[in-house]
From TrEMBL:
Domain Plastocyanin-like: 215-329, 502-608
Native source species: Listeria rustica
Stated name of the protein: Multicopper oxidase domain-containing protein
Keywords: Copper, Membrane, Metal-binding, Oxidoreductase, Transmembrane, Transmembrane helix
A family per Pfam: Cu-oxidase_2
Gene3D superfamilies: Cupredoxins - blue copper proteins
Lineage: Bacteria, Bacillati, Bacillota, Bacilli, Bacillales
Keyword Transmembrane assigned: yes
Amino acid sequence: MYMMFFGSSVLILMGMAIAWSILPFKGGRWLIMANVLLLFAWFAVAVIAGLSIGWEFIRQIFGMLMPMVVSPFLLLAILRKRKLWNRLVKRYAVFVAWFAVFMIAFQIPAFPDGWTYFECFGLPILIFSLLYVWDRRLGGRFRMRWIVSCSVLLIVGFIFGSLVWNATAMQADGHEASMDWGGGKMTRGRQSVDVTTLTGPDAAAVTKRYHFTAAKKKMEVPDGTKKELWLFNGKLTGPAIRVTQGDVVEVTLSNKNIADGVTIHWHGYDVPIAEDGVPDISQKAVAVGESYTYRFKADTAGTFWYHSHNQSSEQVGHGLFGSLVVEPKTLVKEELEIVGFVAPKYIDASGALLSSNGEVPKKIKPGTNVRIRLGNAHNKPQKLMLNGAVFQVAAIDGNLIHKPTDLKNTYLQIPAGGRMDITFTMPNHAVRLFDANDENGGWVFQSTATTTKASTEIPDEVFKPEEYGEQQASQLDLSAGFDREFEMVFDSKLAFFDGMVHHLWTINGELYPNTPMLMVSEGDLVKTTFINRSYSHHPMHLHGHKMLVLTRNGVETTGSPWWTDTLNVKPGETYEVAFKADNPGIWMDHCHNLDHATNGMMMHLQYDNVYTPFSGHTHE
């Protein structure tokens, strides 16, 4: 609905701009009536959108532009019998209508500042005044080409200036990020802690050791073409890390020839901050010829993954990622287990499934319990189907679902960076798992008893984690309320970036590195509200913590406690989540569409007594 409002607004206001452009030169009541109808159409779209998704999502667009686009009609009604003013208003309307199109497409942020208010309200008044002075001084000797040329030049100038202005907001020498204390108190007098001292266990405690070398390798990808990939140990996906709950894991990373340097981030695993693998926060990127050692205790069972966190959009896209599976100490039942990823866009844009633990079995004995651990290494949420068997979602982001129920004719939408464990009992016919973008691909499991054709049907029903499973008490006590509450509003703006025009993605109207710093104290119970006013999905990933989803679009969750580390927020959606500040550090909180993170959608969660000795800004 938000996308409908946004797109319709652009089209309707553009229609008004075209009509007003014709009106001063040809006249005619039908052109005024066309503008009136377009205006009422915009009002109607706004009302429908407001009632459907809430005024919160449209007020910054509708509220800022409504006075602007209505003003020509009011002025015409008031001054219709005065020829000079009537002519003046029509010319003013040309500018206002095109300027409204420009503002909705390029400028209006989630949190308008003083300059934006001047653009929307002050600038039209200034233009009207200048037109009056011009008209009086030149004795009304306007010509069509002057008006058209000046209007076009003015709007083009504003567009170009905005693209340049927005681009400067991403410069590292911009204003320092503001500190948002979420309504809580500023803690003073506590001893400062260096992130490099918040490390994992000593080497003597290690029970599982791995050595990874990051290097370039040319190889065939799923679509049959050969590409230069960047891989850990020459494998796609990287070496599978499989340990048992309680193991102490050590991974030594060496960089053979990745020019910009590499790191390893343990996505979804709450390691100490010094082991988190974020350059310029917890470490320096590992340069060519250098190495770095990570250690952490695998105290949480589940499905996780690892990937480079330096220039992530490029490095993950080229293959620097792999699986991390922590098995529980006691297995509940015997299962045939398969671990896989949806491929990143550079490797295979059609959503090919990559096996992370060897060959995928083509035949399975009927009655076999099967668990598929699925991760999404793509930048966008992926639509996956399991056809041919009743299945359950056993875990989300490594967190078990309490009493999962059977699903059939339902597709899964896995966020970028997210994981889901699905389980089923192999039937006496074919079962197929595939991505909606790769209908001819995926994995087909045939019964050992008979061979049948696997279904390629795409269900209409989507899996709803907010109402799946059975309710139980969560690990968070929310009865006393929250110590801090934050609001994160997602929006976008156009700008020059890397020599081209790109969409830059904002949080609370700011681009990284100027996004607000969320400040907490150890032990705080924190609530965060996500509001997506943009037209794209934003899978928000908080490092070092797990988030408990409280509400989706204002409705409380009713299923099993939904714990996640990567929450996909669709356009027009709101979520409320909660977490305990129990892992001191300076943690990234960013969109895991890594292109969005690269283009500004990053911020940090900082414990008030923790600092980093590293300089510069986090690379995405």
